[in-house]
Amino acid sequence: MRKYVIMGVQGSGKGTQSALLANDLDLVHISVGDIFRWHVKSHTKLGAQVRRLVAAGELVGDDLVEEVVKDRLQQHDWNYGFIIDGFPRNRRQAEFFLESYDIDGVIHLDLPDEEVRRRVLARRLCSRCGMDYNLIAHRPEVEGRCDVCGGELVTRADDTPDALARRLRDYHTKIDPVVELFKGKEYVTSVDARAGKVSVQQTIRARLNLPPYEPAPRPDSAETRTDT
After folding, report:
1. Known catalytic membership, residue 207
2. Is position 89 annotated as part of the catalytic site?
3. Known catalytic residue at 194
4. Catalytic choice (3, 72, 89, 119)
5. Among 156, 166, 194, 205, the one annotated catalytic
6. Is 60 exceeded by the pLDDT of residue 12?
7. Which annotated residues bind AMP (predicted)?
8. What pLDDT does residue 219 have?
9. Which residues carry a binding-site annotation for AMP?
10. Is 169 a catalytic residue?
11. What is the pLDDT of residue 19?
12. Catalytic residue among 72, 119, 123, 124
């Protein structure tokens, strides 16, 4: 059984890297952000609270995050292990986590603030179907319109320079000390997150002594084409 924590500032690719590891290693990907987004989409009481915080450019409170994570881990559906992102959020939570779970490593995706701003402020969301875009890596065929449904692409309510600046300050104040705590216990593998997603994944696996990542061939690649 493998148990990992993945940490990194917004826009560092935690979700992408977690999914690649989870799919190959049969890990359960526990994303605190995804859990909260589900509540927002489902219009729960918790979702309404999260929506107000996000619109103000603030992070969800630590106590609320801890409660959600404890509840999720108690489901024990992670037979082969898990990779969790969005937790722990402070030193107290990190110490609790180390006492409660025999983790195998902490993956730290290191991304400079200027690159965070470049990536996050390029994000767009389809106002109709909710499809995510990033104008750096995934530009729509028709500018300002969703490739899937033709809906208008809009900036997320929390993706403003002021809101992002507040989140970055909050992140460094709370999370940097957690990373240092994990480093002191020699759990941390730091990876430069500015590289492409495949390169980052390969580096993570090499550092953790995991099998190399083998991307699935594209449908139109030489390996999958057949002559007619």
Report:
1. no
2. yes
3. no
4. 89
5. 156
6. yes
7. 37, 58-60, 86-89, 93, 156, 167
8. 53
9. 37, 58-60, 86-89, 93, 156, 167
10. no
11. 93
12. 123
Q: Is 156 a catalytic residue?
A: yes
> What are the strands of the beta sheet with 105-110, ordered from one edge?
28-31, 81-85, 2-8, 105-110, 188-192
Segment 48-72 mean pLDDT: 81
Cα 143 to chain centroid, rounded: 27
Q: What angle do CA 130, 171, 118 make, to 5 degrees?
A: 55
Summarize the annotated binding site for Zn(2+) as residue ranges.
Answer: 126, 129, 146, 149
Pick out the residues of the known binding site: 11-16, 37, 58-60, 86-89, 93, 123, 126, 129, 146, 149, 156, 167, 195
* DSSP state string for 157-209: TT-SHHHHHHHHHHHHHHHHHHHHHHHHTT-EEEEETTS-HHHHHHHHHHHTT
Q: What is the mean pLDDT of the chain?
A: 88
pLDDT band at 86 (very low <50, low <70, confident <90, very high): confident
Q: Which is the catalytic residue, given 3, 119, 124, 167?
A: 167
Q: Quickly list H helices, the chain.
A: 14-25, 32-41, 45-55, 62-73, 91-100, 113-120, 161-184, 197-207
Catalytic residue among 14, 72, 119, 124: 14
Identify whether the C-beta of residue 105 lies closer than 8 Å to the C-beta of residue 113. no
Report whether pLDDT(22) > 90: yes
42: DSSP letter: T
**Contact status, residue 204 vs residue 17, Cβ threshold 8 Å:** yes
What does the pLDDT average to over 213-224? 61
pLDDT, tens only, 120-170: 999 999 999 988 898 987 889 999 999 999 999 999 888 899 989 998 998
The mean-pLDDT minimum among 25-29, 55-59, 155-159 falls in: 55-59
